[in-house]
Amino acid sequence: MKNNPKVEDNFPWDQTMRNHFTTFPKFLISSILLISILCIFYTVSFSNSSNKDLNIITAVHGGREEVAVAPPPVPSPKPSPSSKTTLRQIVFGIAASARLWDHRKNYIKLWWKAQMRGVVWLDKGVKPGIDDHLLPQKMISGDTSKFKYNNPKGHRSAIRISRIVSETLRLGLDDVRWFVMGDDDTFFVPDNLVRVLSKYDHNQFYYIGSSSESHLQNINFSYGMAYGGGGFAISYPLAKALAKMQDRCIQRYPGLYGSDDRIHACMAELGVPLTKEPGFHQYDVFGNLLGLLSAHPIAPLVSIHHLDKVEPIFPNMNRVQALKRLNIPINLDSAALMQQSVCYDKTRSWTVSISWGYTVQINRGIFSVREMEMPARTFLNWYKRADYTGFAFNTRPVTRHVCQKPFVYYLSKVSYNKVMNQTVSEHVQHQVSNPDCKWKMADPSRIERVEVYRKPDPNLWDKPPRRNCCRVLPTKKKGTMVIDVGVCGDDEVIELR
Ligand SMILES: *[C@@H]1O[C@H](CO)[C@@H](O)[C@H](O)[C@H]1NC(C)=O
Ligand SMILES: *[C@@H]1O[C@H](CO)[C@@H](O)[C@H](O)[C@H]1NC(C)=O
């Protein structure tokens, strides 16, 4: 309540709040509010400011401060600040353009759910579509022509986009903990976004996202910047602080290129560093994401960006179809999505790497886990080079040796067995001509399908990160490999031999 109430007057909170309650007797609300305010006042004045008391106060206010200006009627029971963040408490602001809307809306439809809240911010109006009920509401961004923009390479729409968080805040939605920004070509895994954000206290200042895969991009922009397409989250109080200064801040940086570097510049002025979460993926790459997605960091996968720049993530289908397929494992066990486990078929001397919900790869020979956890360079960097120095993380080359080419099995279907409480994923061999290998060892080409069993664990990320273990199980099924994936047992270690 230390903020200047004048600034808050600019926000249309009270209007939105009032709309909800027109049917309620106004005097009753006013008296309840008066009593609540008095209670709060006395709690503040007379209790020692132990943490417990402060928690009670924020609980009454729902963690917000507008009460001081226009006391809102008390709607549904307010969650305590320690309660787990829900999807509804995250409000999305999606940057879109009218020109690409008809194409890009198909990506948003893949992850958007009716219970979510958010706005697609457009530069101008688009025709209503028959699928509008499957998409967030659309709004036109405020006029930004008065702002200076003089970057020779970029486009001044960057200013409009950088103001999305502030403009979304000004809608005055209730019970918001986080604002999440994304592009129209960003695919989110909403449940994993909830998992990541619920680790942080939304009553504090947080700026959460990730940097680029491209070292050069990070040098040009900053390693401390959250890349907008990968998506980033700003806590409610930070969004409020940003909204108060952003328009002045934008005017101080007319030479910047994009929207996310403008946000970063304002964050730097506010003194709030980037909290890096490795599950947000800008994916400043071209080509095949196979290498990256089959060696995902041990963290929940939150987003995939640049859907139009990379190849469809499953072969022989278009981009939208491929992401629809990914939605099947996401609906069954989102926490485990793209989690890599590595194990060995000791009798046949094969290394098996699983990326849950996506691929199984069988390699002839024994590779260490530290090698397998490095993404193979199946993709090019942003400057269209395959050079390993171009990346901001370790990579390994795609092997040229005919015997070391991995056999890739893509997910074909997944189901959940209620009795066993486990998912069964079926993977089929990607039909590519197998180069002739003269090694005198078992040939994985005989394996046509791989079955992966895993017990879903919705609380996987409440524990410190740890890679799951996998085990190659004996089977009599011809041409099939059966693998169990799950929490490592006591003393279970993935050992070479
Ligand atoms: C980033 O740096 C490279 C190499 O100096 C340059 O070619 C490229 O245009 C730069 N990109 C931006 C957006 O500044
Ligand atoms: C299935 O197993 C997981 C992990 O042991 C457990 O958390 C979950 O509650 C179980 N679900 C059911 C329906 O039994």
Automatic annotation (TrEMBL):
Protein's organism: Gossypium hirsutum (Upland cotton)
Keyword tags: Membrane, Transmembrane, Transmembrane helix
InterPro entries referenced in this protein's UniProt entry, alphabetically: DUF604 (IPR006740)
Membrane-spanning ranges: 27-46
GO molecular function, one term: acetylglucosaminyltransferase activity
A Pfam short name: DUF604
Name of the protein in question: Transferring glycosyl group transferase
UniProt keyword Plastid, yes or no: no
Coiled coil segments of this chain: none
Transmembrane keyword on record: yes
